[in-house]
Write a structure and sequence with these properties.
Length: 160
């Protein structure tokens, strides 16, 4: 429980920003699973890391579609991009640098799915759309959102 709550602090109070634009995408626990696995791995708590990896890999959710395996099919592949926290650390830095705020501090709104995939792709250094399709399916309006995100945030680049 403590590491879960620490994940919310990291997500919502880093890089001189307040809030979590991605919270509406990943909900209360999905980012926390990534954080917990990475924390235990980084601390070389291999038994705990394996325990949460196994538990989170078996857990499915009903968002954004029924039977979505957030950790197994999305966050673990992202973690494997850099074998550690770098990809999500870049994601949070990119949000702080590029995503709009209402007062220079508080994020002004939530990400939509296209923006989420665009920011995640930039953080990973590769186009994550196919991974998102595999993990979550792909809704028709996400294509329009992704195209709009690429136009709205052109400094975010990745292997397209």
């Amino acid at each position: 429980m403590i590491t879960h709550e620490i994940a919310h602090i990291v997500e919502s109070a880093g890089h001189n920003r307040a809030g979590s634009p991605a919270f509406s995408i990943w909900g209360d626990s999905k980012w926390a699973e990534y954080f917990q696995y990475d924390l235990y791995t980084g601390l070389r708590m291999t038994v705990e890391a394996q325990r949460v990896k196994d538990r989170f890999s078996r857990a499915s959710d009903d968002f954004p579609r029924q039977g979505a395996y957030w950790f197994r099919d999305w966050f673990l592949p992202l973690w494997n991009v850099t074998q550690g926290p770098e990809v999500m650390a870049r994601f949070l830095r990119l949000l702080a640098a590029e995503f709009p705020t209402r007062d220079g501090f508080t994020y002004s709104r939530r990400l939509n799915w296209g923006e989420y995939v665009h920011f995640t792709s930039a953080a990973a250094g590769r186009d994550m759309r196919r991974q998102a399709e595999s993990a979550f399916g792909w809704q028709a309006d996400w294509t329009e959102q992704l195209d709009a995100a690429r136009e709205a945030f052109p400094r975010l680049t990745y292997g397209r």
